[in-house]
């Protein structure tokens, strides 16, 4: 698999208030190969969304937003790229799926038209467009697509709207989809169905995926590799099974323990490897993360060492 995306030493400063600023992302490096699924996991405020939005060119448009480092997409440097270059990338190379479809969907435009607008212009002229729109809606796991295409976003359920976002994202035939908490707003069963659809769709199209979630179970079930973020930094990365079986960073260990508390609440886990379950069984219940003791460890999993030794 050749490399599609390489992010190196990415730092993002965002304005807060009149003069203040926050360094939301600090020195993040990551990579995605063609067809690979990569997870970014971490608690709220850890910098996952800002990282994802940087990659999709969707940070707030303000001269006070400062991005440094490098985002190389298919050999093209995007940090410092002009609006036209970004527009091109977003139109056909990178699709983004957000947590809240209603903020993304146009409330007064029919669903079919919104999918159609996402089809790159070169392909969008023929009579086949309508058929293509229906095909993308079906691919995203929706039924009765002809009728659905005529409906407006508020007429659909949350799960259906999220599938429409998947259809819009794949209609561009992007090389990469960045899905930011795509199922967080949905209840557990709908969440699983939408995740399965996303999983099947990217597999069918061979699209690379960056899946962003605070929920380690969601990311574990769908990705080949994981980056764990804390405080704007990547604190641990590695193949998903290695990170789950042998978490090196204390923060990752706390995240893993919190997955167990989800199971305690009766929430279904996705496909957690049995060895990970065994590790969880040996852990004390979720405890506070001792930041001072953990910092500034920057661990790469899968290079030996037991979780207890970290
Ligand atoms: N538009 C913005 N303007 C100013 N600060 C922002 C903006 N967006 C995010 N931040 C700040 O940047 C930091 C990282 O936020 P980010 O949204 O990337 O975190 P996250 O890990 O995705 O969390 P969540 O899951 O809650 O979105 C946070 O401190 C957040 O408050």
UniProtKB/TrEMBL annotation:
<dbReference type="Pfam" id="PF08352">
    <property type="entry name" value="oligo_HPY"/>
</dbReference>
<dbReference type="InterPro" id="IPR050388">
    <property type="entry name" value="ABC_Ni/Peptide_Import"/>
</dbReference>
<comment type="similarity">
    <text>Belongs to the ABC transporter superfamily.</text>
</comment>
<dbReference type="GO" id="GO:0005524">
    <property type="term" value="F:ATP binding"/>
</dbReference>
<dbReference type="GO" id="GO:0015833">
    <property type="term" value="P:peptide transport"/>
</dbReference>
<keyword id="KW-1003">Cell membrane</keyword>
<keyword id="KW-0067">ATP-binding</keyword>
<dbReference type="Pfam" id="PF00005">
    <property type="entry name" value="ABC_tran"/>
</dbReference>
<dbReference type="InterPro" id="IPR003439">
    <property type="entry name" value="ABC_transporter-like_ATP-bd"/>
</dbReference>
<dbReference type="InterPro" id="IPR017871">
    <property type="entry name" value="ABC_transporter-like_CS"/>
</dbReference>
<dbReference type="InterPro" id="IPR013563">
    <property type="entry name" value="Oligopep_ABC_C"/>
</dbReference>
<keyword id="KW-0472">Membrane</keyword>
<protein>
    <submittedName>
        <fullName>ATP-binding cassette domain-containing protein</fullName>
    </submittedName>
</protein>
<keyword id="KW-0547">Nucleotide-binding</keyword>
<feature type="domain" description="ABC transporter">
    <location>
        <begin position="5"/>
        <end position="256"/>
    </location>
</feature>
<dbReference type="InterPro" id="IPR003593">
    <property type="entry name" value="AAA+_ATPase"/>
</dbReference>
<dbReference type="GO" id="GO:0016887">
    <property type="term" value="F:ATP hydrolysis activity"/>
</dbReference>
<dbReference type="GO" id="GO:0005886">
    <property type="term" value="C:plasma membrane"/>
</dbReference>
<keyword id="KW-0813">Transport</keyword>
<dbReference type="InterPro" id="IPR027417">
    <property type="entry name" value="P-loop_NTPase"/>
</dbReference>
<feature type="region of interest" description="Disordered">
    <location>
        <begin position="290"/>
        <end position="310"/>
    </location>
</feature>
